[in-house]
Amino acid sequence: MLMPLAFLPVNLVLAGFEILNVGTSGQVEALFQYVQREWLPATKIPLWNVHGVAVRTNNHLEGWHSQMDKRAQKH
Where does the record locate the signal sequence feature (predicted)? Predict the structure, then answer.
């Protein structure tokens, strides 16, 4: 539910969070409070936001490991 926030432009993350947060309660509300406190300060959003990033680390590394596996099997 919260993962799509990483793909929003930085200036829209807080608005997106508020939209997702409407009507939450119980454990979900506690999760949202944690995310707001720990991950949504303005200085932290650019650290995890991937909007406009062409190469995301996991995909790039998985491709590299795939190539290494293919080469290792040849010998």
Answer: 1-15
